[in-house]
Design a protein that fits this description.
- 6 copies of one chain form a homohexamer.
- By secondary structure, chain A is α+β, with helices and mostly antiparallel strands.
- The first copy, chain A, has a single domain, classed as 6-pyruvoyl tetrahydropterin synthase/QueD (Tetrahydropterin Synthase, Chain A).
- Helix content of chain A is 26%, strand content 33%.
- The first copy, chain A, contains 3 helices and 5 strands, in the order βαβαβαββ.
- In chain A, strands 3-1-2-4-5 form a 5-stranded mixed sheet.
- Chain A starts with a strand and ends with a strand.
- Chains in contact: A-B, A-D, A-F, B-C, B-F, C-D, C-E, D-E, E-F.
- Chain B binds chain C through residues 11, 13-16, 34-35, 37, 39-44, 81-84, 87-88, 128-130, and chain C through 11, 13-16, 34-35, 37, 39-44, 81-84, 87-88, 128-129.
- Strand 5 of chain C pairs antiparallel with strand 1 (3-16) of chain E.
Chain lengths: 138, 138, 138, 138, 138, 138
Amino acid sequence: MPRVSVTRRVHFSAAHRIHRPDWSDDRNQEVFGDCSNPQWHGHNYEMDVTVEGEIDPETGYVMDLKELKDLVQNRVLADVDHRNLNTQVPWLKDTNPTTENFIVAIWERLREHLPERVALRRLVLWETPRNYVEYEGL
Amino acid sequence: MPRVSVTRRVHFSAAHRIHRPDWSDDRNQEVFGDCSNPQWHGHNYEMDVTVEGEIDPETGYVMDLKELKDLVQNRVLADVDHRNLNTQVPWLKDTNPTTENFIVAIWERLREHLPERVALRRLVLWETPRNYVEYEGL
Amino acid sequence: MPRVSVTRRVHFSAAHRIHRPDWSDDRNQEVFGDCSNPQWHGHNYEMDVTVEGEIDPETGYVMDLKELKDLVQNRVLADVDHRNLNTQVPWLKDTNPTTENFIVAIWERLREHLPERVALRRLVLWETPRNYVEYEGL
Amino acid sequence: MPRVSVTRRVHFSAAHRIHRPDWSDDRNQEVFGDCSNPQWHGHNYEMDVTVEGEIDPETGYVMDLKELKDLVQNRVLADVDHRNLNTQVPWLKDTNPTTENFIVAIWERLREHLPERVALRRLVLWETPRNYVEYEGL
Amino acid sequence: MPRVSVTRRVHFSAAHRIHRPDWSDDRNQEVFGDCSNPQWHGHNYEMDVTVEGEIDPETGYVMDLKELKDLVQNRVLADVDHRNLNTQVPWLKDTNPTTENFIVAIWERLREHLPERVALRRLVLWETPRNYVEYEGL
Amino acid sequence: MPRVSVTRRVHFSAAHRIHRPDWSDDRNQEVFGDCSNPQWHGHNYEMDVTVEGEIDPETGYVMDLKELKDLVQNRVLADVDHRNLNTQVPWLKDTNPTTENFIVAIWERLREHLPERVALRRLVLWETPRNYVEYEGL
């Protein structure tokens, strides 16, 4: 059977700062520049969540995209949309919320909650229209 | 010689419904929801057709994109643009036109009609700006 | 007080055909071409709904965009998303659903249902990424 | 002489919350919902800055876009990019940073600093890809 | 009858330089910088052509967009696509091809060639995704 | 440690023609059509530069995107932006500047200049919004 990848693109807005609490303010400023502004900044994030699997001969779907949308809503967006990534997201606690660390944490939130028939194949996370990261798991 | 992938993005509009004729209307509605509306709905589809090959040292092209555009026009768009995917496309007959089934059928329309020098590498098919599928063959 | 325009962009998918029932099939085909395909075609529509008013000094809003979104959802999208514009939308009955006729009908659905403080200023309706219409009322 | 409008589109990222300090937290939450999250959220803003004037017969420009870009950089972006709109921008002090109030404040930052030959005609400010405001002055 | 604006977005690629032949190379370089590179540079232009008129009660169209597309193709794109704006376009002869001068010249190419029922209302011409000009006639 | 891909999207404008100097003008015209216009044409190019590596546990970055941006600026954009690809770029000398040849040449400009911790994974180069090429190295 053909294996097809299916993607849902989602959107959210959040505040953050790139910051290590175990470093001095000067050290944070020196390494991370304006991204470490103590009064925060924020972004409109766009994320492509891609799952892969065989087409279910009964429905013609790899996975119902409404189901995928709901899963991402419940496991990720409900926790991060209009939130502060440094202080308000339990599963980012003790994580410096660079886009790289963030995408790996989102991967962990999603990968074991998909239906058995599909695998999480790829995440793409845009922090701005010019910068994005991709992760395909270990 | 370096192998490069070359993509042409194309656009078309079509009507469809997600529907199994061997199921009752109630069953279709239950599984597919509004996507199974008996009076149809439709989409502006965008599709990226990607071929891969070595650069031809004579022309500097992997494949002339005008040729690729014409091939996609003749083998796919001429049949589906401003058409009903359930009732008017011979090569979709007996296919429930989910995006997954549709992309596999398009792959079959294209793969043996490319020049020998290149291989069909990937199709990406957007049904909406938020949903898309990818296929890279068996 | 400064007057500001506020816009919410919305998305829906629908089937239609450009068609006059009082004309023969041949006449429809001659004037409207493929857009009159009797088996329908469809689009992903994008629409910008713009209201204008003074900034409310209490909230700093011209209009809460959530309220505008809900209004457009209830008065327009609930009737047209995943529907057939020719056969399933009561307020388009007896209307040839060109983008021009459609935008005027949407205007009438919205303009008397806005809060008193704001006026409907402009609608922009994209039928494809290359074609759109604008309407600002009589 | 023909009058032409010339636009530069710029980008910045900032944190904010919709919040009235003279209201209780409960009242802020009730009226502004998640947008009033005390731990902030943020956005990638896009802004179109449009000036209008006659074409200078010497240069063929209404205004050198590099000059316009520098002006917007110095008068606006340097103060707001990677900043907190509620706490770090002197010219937004005592302003509830809704998009409506923000665009009017930006207008005031720019309008008297343009070369005499051109007038500030319009600002468009996107807070998200689905929400934007426009202002054309008093 | 309602008046509606109808827009067709078109695309072309061209070479140019910002340059006054009656100025020295040094003077051109000083005023126009890299845009005056004697070996040319180029752009993908996008243009929105907007016409306005009453909806034709017979067709439901303000203007058949295919007709508008053909007109723009014949009067503008055929002359400028894959051409050098300084040396190969008869109707730009003796014009310094800034975006401002270019849009006024395009306006003149189109305005008297539209059907009587509609008026040319607005042109928008993007030179890059960040810079555009608008013209609405004298 | 998780390996993540990080991308910076950049923009530039250039003139070129598809042309082999060892062929006659007629032969060039026959094979390359308008793309071989002797008076040049040009494009707004967009390019995604993707590097891959482990997340640095100290910074949470795979690579500081500012560093990547500066590298691409110095090694590529400074040479090609507002330039003629056929005549003004030393590292494209004797290269027919098709998008395929261009992307391979850019790859060579970048791959040995990245920090040791990361590898150049992929380039994507858009010549128009409808045509792009990808290269992942030999």
